[in-house]
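Fold this sequence, please.
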Amino acid sequence: MSAQVSEILRKATNGTRISSEEALTLFAEAALPELAWAAEQICQSKHPENVRTYVIDRNINYTNVCISGCAFCAFFRPPGHPEGYVLSIDEILRKVSEAVNLGATQILMQGGLHPDLDVAYFESLFREIKKQFSVHLHSLSAPEIVHIARISGLSVRETLKRLQAAGLDSLPGGGAEILVDSVRRRLSPRKCRVDEWVQVMRIASELNMKGTATMVFGMGESFADRVAHLTAVRDLQDETGVFTAFIPWTYQPGNTTLGGDSVGGHDYLRTLAVSRIYLDNIHNIQASWVTQGAQVAELALRFGANDAGSTMIEENVVAATGVSYKMDERGLVDLIHRAGYRAAQRTTLYEIVKLHEA
């Protein structure tokens, strides 16, 4: 271990915030075991109870019609495409019912930027779900909020207030990808800018809503771009405290316009560990079995992650790339136990529902 890396990790594990330059040094120079050790030390200091969590949810993609046309997305279809769809409200309610019957406490609902689905559509949908089910609606990413506001002729604030009144509880961190405008112009030029993504989350916090932050990496961005993304998230968390969790995951190239190769488990675990070390103000970091599979997700619980994610009763976006890992509740519990921890089901806001002793 170099003296510089050693000093950075010593600072971080002693509770001192590291700089963006120091995070970049860790990306470029630190060995994987060094990062794992430091990330686990920091994770244990935040979660000394030796419990790692998961949530039961369903990811309902209400439409795949999207005007954004992101180069990294295999899921979307342009307006008018024969494979485009919009789920009926009855179909969505059926999916919610199935999920609730399987123990789901959260519904994660995301879709494309559909040119015709305005705020009134989502108000009707959310009210109907809340009328029939007691479930947390963790739905609509920041780009969807910006798009809905635009086609509805409303401000983002008014859009969020109306959706919240209809039943929206919190916002997922999707659509962040890499929060660097030069990267976004290359990959998703018709999606919201960095300042717009940040502003959605800032306003959500002002309305007493919580959200998560994500990062999709491995799309040709630099380590400096990843650090810039983490800095944007850390700065906003300092300002608002809006984020309950951070979820980094890797780009999957199958069936996408961008193509290329996916980064491997080594880069995933490195990025996960640096995220835990750098994001000192975010309590929860989530592993991504959806893109990495169970074995790497198990390792992730020793690289700074304290949450194994969700059962994802349904998942379509990553599956559209040809990557399709499956995991039920028993599988997640076993994964956590194999990593050496007690497993606990949680809510969206990280309240414990039940504890599974090993």
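The radius of gyration is 19 Å. The CA atoms of residues 237 and 243 lie 6 Å apart.
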